[in-house]
Please model this.
Amino acid sequence: MRVSKAIIILIGAAAWMGTAAMVQAQTYKDRQTAIAASVLPPGLRNVGLDQKLNEQVPLDLRFRDETGRELPLSSYFGARPVILALVYYQCPMLCTQILNGLVISLRGMSLESGRDFEVVSVSIDPTETPELAARKKAEYLRRYVKSPLGWHFLTGAEPQIKELAHAAGFRYAYDPKSKQFAHASAIMVLTPTGKLSRYFYGIEYPPRDLRLGLVEASENKIGTPVDQLLLYCFHYEPGTGKYSAIVMNIVRLAGALTLAIFVPILVWLWRRDLRRDHEPTGRVARVR
Model:
């Protein structure tokens, strides 16, 4: 009888935990908003972002770093996954918000640039100089604090910029009237070999999502067992550029955790009842 009651409790607890997990997963909503193309001037309606997942970016393209050295993109790839931000350094608003969101996300992760990943910011404005890139780098390294390594601010010639942007699916346009560039707000995560792995939209990048994107891009060479557990429960949705909950996997995990907790209790109760059933009647009577 006691064992039967324990089984009922076990089943009830598993059901409750599974239901709670489903409710939590279903309340995970995408808060990303997009600007409709119809509100843009006719000349800027082709601005946007085309996801080219698993496609290779040309690593032989050459850009100048903050010191003025001209190096191929391959200099920043090979050992670690790479976060790519296509921006321009004199942007009055959106690019600053992208870089601000990126540095906030980087500070929220235990992973570190230069050790676990690289960050490559490339200006889409061919008139910008390494001196400007150096000032921008100094500004964001002061804010990042964690590591002075692994965050690169590059400038380049227009043909190289356009080829890289095209390979990444990053469609932008220059507006002569405002003398500004219209472009999408997003960052990309690439594998160590230079293949596009993840896109994150907007100007805010949840540290959990960015971390999982880096772990996946590294083919699990960075991260912890906790990251593997999270990747079991969350998957990347290209349409939103976010990680969302896999309801059934969460339910399975909740059930497994429930069993791991309650099965030892159930076994202990069963053994206790078994011992009592084999105790001499007189001894039981004296105890009572």
User: Anything to note?
Assistant: The longest strand covers residues 82-87. Residues 95 and 215 are 25 Å apart (CA to CA). Residues 2-27+248-287 form one domain.
